[in-house]
Amino acid sequence: MSVMDKIRNKAQEVAGKAKEMAGRASGHEDLEAEGRADKSKGRTKQAGEKIKDAAGKVKGAFKS
């Protein structure tokens, strides 16, 4: 996983959290839901990248 992918995914997660909190504070349920969705997307992407990293390590272990 590239460093830029990690940064983008984390940024999406953080932006989603901010959007969720802004929606909650202002009473806008749609904004809050959109923030939760963005946060979940960022977390899911991070998990997928971690799986790719782990698979690469396992593959590398068997090549030796």
From TrEMBL:
InterPro entries: CsbD (IPR008462), YjbJ_sf (IPR036629)
Annotated Basic and acidic residues bias: 1-56
SUPFAM superfamilies, A to Z: Hypothetical protein YjbJ
Domain CsbD-like: 5-55
Pfam family name, one: CsbD
Region entry Disordered, spans: 1-64
Signal peptide limits: none
Protein family membership: Belongs to the UPF0337 (CsbD) family.
Protein name (Swiss-Prot/TrEMBL): CsbD family protein
Organism from which the protein derives: Planotetraspora phitsanulokensis
